[in-house]
Design a protein that fits this description.
The chain has 163 residues and is of the alpha/beta class. The chain is built from five helices and five strands, in the order E-E-E-H-E-H-E-H-H-H.
Length: 163
């Protein structure tokens, strides 16, 4: 199974492809779609759509995991992130890619074993689980890989229960 994890954002949209073979997880590709703060909002969203579409066409993942919006501090970033998230959901629908949405708490619980884990703990576990030579950078990429890991766990559990 190939899962794509997406950490939505307009400035930095992290992505990570994680393959599950048996019980082994492997990162195939990961990175970030970045946009200029000087670009018009619609151009930033178009860039996210265009680059994500190309990634979906290249890798054809079985499922895409996306972090649900959760803002308790900086509400001003909620609208642009929500817009990016909308573009991501639309792109998934256009490519007929299955979608799984997870909260930050569920992602941390799945990857670290503790729903209130720190950013550093998540990065450490992503590096360890995927046997990466260095920690993924920026944090948005590590988050995307964590979302992909969580997505593989979620889908695997559903498949196991439906046997």
């Amino acid at each position: 199974m190939l899962a794509l994890g997406i950490d939505p954002g307009t400035a930095i949209c992290g992505y990570g492809f994680v393959e599950l073979t048996g019980s082994r997880l492997k990162a195939l590709e990961y990175g970030a779609i970045t946009t200029s703060s000087k670009a018009r909002p619609q151009d930033r969203l178009l860039k996210i759509h265009t680059e994500l579409t190309a990634l979906l066409e290249k890798y054809k993942p079985d499922v895409m995991g996306v972090e649900q919006l959760f803002f308790n501090r900086n509400v001003t970033t909620a609208i642009p992130v929500g817009q990016a998230r909308g573009v991501i959901l639309l792109t998934a629908a256009q490519s007929n890619t299955e979608l799984v949405e997870r909260t930050p708490l569920q992602i941390k619980q799945s990857v670290v074993g503790y729903g209130k884990a720190t950013k550093e703990q998540v990065i450490y576990m992503v590096k360890k689980i995927l046997n990466l030579p260095t920690a993924p950078h920026p944090d948005d990429v590590a988050d995307a890989l964590a979302i992909a890991i969580c997505t593989t766990h979620c889908i695997n559990n559903i498949l196991w229960r439906n046997r």
